[in-house]
Amino acid sequence: MWGVILYGLICGAFSGAHYINGGHENATLNDSMNVRYIGHLDTPGQAYGVAVQGPYAYIADGQALRIADITDPSDPIEVGFLSVQGEDVRDVWIDGDYAYLAAGDDGLMVVDVSDPTAPQLVGQLSTPGIAFRLMVVENLAYVANDSGLVIVDISNPSSPTLIGTYRTQHSVSDVYVMGDYAYLAGVDSFLVVNIADPANPQCIARLAPEGQGKGIFVSNHYAYLASYVDLKVYDVQDPTNPQLISTYDQPQARFVGAFIQNDIAYVITSRHGIYILDVSDPSNPQDTGFYYNAYGTMEDVNVVGDYIYVAAYSNGLQIYEFDVGGGTPGGDSLQISYIGHLDLHGDAYGVHVQGNYAYVANGSRGLEVVDVSDPFNPFEAARVPMNAWDAVDVFVSGNYAYVVTNGDRGLHIIDISNPQVPNEVGYLSVSGNGYGYRVFVSGNYAYLATGDGLRIVDVANPSSPIEVGHFDTRFADRDVYVDGNYAYLAALTDFYVVDVSNPALPESLTRLTIHDQVRRVFVHNGYAYVARYSDMLIYDVSDPSNPVAVYTFDPSGTMSGVFVQDSFAYVITNRHGWWLLNVSNPADPHPIDYFYNLYGTFEDIYVQNEYAYIAAYADGLQIYWISTTEIDEDPVNACPHDVAVNTVISGSNAVLSFMLPVPGEFSISIYDVTGRMVWHEDGYLSSGSHRIKIPVNLSNGIYVLKFHSSSGTKTYKLVRIE
């Protein structure tokens, strides 16, 4: 698939968001082509559905109806909620002063929302089956459930009355009503039901398209059916005989819903993101926007004006903005590309990479061994359970992985000489109180950060580890890094440097009290990078007894980790994403790039060569490709302002469309990350719009595309994921 991620660098300008400490301007994050993320409300339940009326968004949140003030879409605020028994609120429809809920086993609920801050349940009807979705037209509610279509009279909101049903063999996922017809997205079918007589609905057309139907929307006389395999467009001018006129698909995308407004289709997928299509000609949908979603699950979409409201399951309400007029293709970042992900079904706290394997401390599931020989397609190679305790960190040295478990302050030593058949050979529960947090191995010793300080373990004999030393910190030691004869400790509000030249008698060289929570520490080339709750401090530790602060990196977000390789620091935040910094001069680092993370919680990062591996808690292992070299060498003044370049995706093909203001020569070149040209085309073209196919016979990876004409040069970074 081409175009899952297309990042644009226009005229050498930085297209990703960046922040420079000291009050410099924050640049706008251009998350994808013509779409940008602008707001988020993390709801406590599972957001299945969303409706918008006036300045409020109404969220079907599983266990409740939640109401958010969206006056400022970048900062939605919950103002009211109504809890319901169970966790079955699946959909919401707003009509005047009432919210109608499809509430699973509880059927249809009617809620008075005349005061959005104090919603009140006023009516309820237990409908046959499990209610999934609904639509309200005048005085009737049409409910899609696991037994078919249910029609309810709601003329008296306090006393909804069942008046008609149409039973289907399998579940109905969604319903859309237009005129005298109800269009149903079934698990195994697309149905048209005549509802002119609501008491006696009759099926007049039934098709069995491939894929599980999930969402349906009807606009003009076209029905848009979203299924797990594609988006199908039917001409339903004759409702008794729907005609398939087009199909839109993307490899591996699971389409779950669509919303049509002003000839634009907003199509959501379960995990791939939002596709925005120009459907002015429904027989030939054209890509016009895209937002790549690497992490969360999307359930429902509603569009008002230029704003897109998405019910994103465990990630709550997300709000995006679409520029209908088109614009420059952009991306989550320029130098950083998300390329791979593996859901490990646990809580990934720590990661260490050696060779072709990533070792992940995965909470209750223990140690996961992941084959990352193809970073685009990581897969689990082996797993080692850790009994009743959670694996919270891992360090790999030689043929052994050292895993810390929390509640028992355990050190598990795993023989990984054959990574596909790991074997626990040693175990020690260190003394003291509190939890185990992190581990660092240097020489024959393992250094454990625990609830009551630093514990030092002799691991010369991996099958028989022996605790030999302890250094007591005032507060819990959350991280440890050992460099030579010194251990650097992140101990809540304190940063320690400890002499461990005699592991049996560690001695404090210095303690700095930092008035914030210290979370991680990394030492590189005489500098300590200390990630604390609100920022990252860089200390010159060339004299370990006298650390000197040389810089404070202060971006938005809660710092959760740092890794330094060569002249670059990789800084992760808990939920805001991560930064790539040039630290060739640690006293004056500068941000190179930023990757915005809407969903997952970042816990740990490990960098090996050009790949960054992130332990993303419930989102498992995430893999990113990093470029630390400039991609575009063209000066700003060479900017071809009058050349429009866009990417259009059609199935597995990619098309480069561009406009030449005057006749002339052009050239298009694609390079791999080594700088080798892998494709080239040039020639002479007339003025006007042109389209050229990009080859699809290239292997998965990162590529740079350069487009040159007499007006100038533009450079793009492309990621190919099959």
Concise synopsis of the structure shown:
This protein has 722 residues and is mainly β. The protein has 3 domains: 1-30 and 328-334 and 631-722, Immunoglobulin-like; 38-253, 7 Propeller (Methylamine Dehydrogenase, Chain H); 337-626, 7 Propeller (Methylamine Dehydrogenase, Chain H).
Structure description:
The chain is mainly β and 722 residues long. It folds into 3 domains: 1-30 and 328-334 and 631-722, Immunoglobulin-like (Sandwich); 38-253, YVTN repeat-like/Quinoprotein amine dehydrogenase (Methylamine Dehydrogenase, Chain H, 7 Propeller), CATH 2.130.10.10; 337-626, Methylamine Dehydrogenase, Chain H (7 Propeller), CATH 2.130.10.10. It contains no helices and 62 strands. Strand 31 (350-354) and strand 32 form a beta hairpin. It is globular and about 90 Å long. It starts with a strand and ends with a strand. Mean pLDDT is 83; it is low at 1-31, 324-334 and 630-652.
Q: Care to count the β-strands?
A: 62
Please tally the helical runs, counting DSSP H or I stretches of 4 or more residues.
Answer: 0
**CATH superfamily (homologous) name of the largest domain:** YVTN repeat-like/Quinoprotein amine dehydrogenase
Could you name the CATH class of the largest domain?
Mainly Beta
Can you give the helix content as a percent range? under 10%
CATH topology of the largest domain: Methylamine Dehydrogenase, Chain H
Strand order of the largest sheet: 43-44-45-46-47-48
The percent range for strand residues is over 45%
The biggest beta sheet is recorded as: 6 strands, antiparallel
Question: Per CATH, which architecture of the largest domain?
Answer: 7 Propeller
End-to-end C-alpha gap? 5 Å
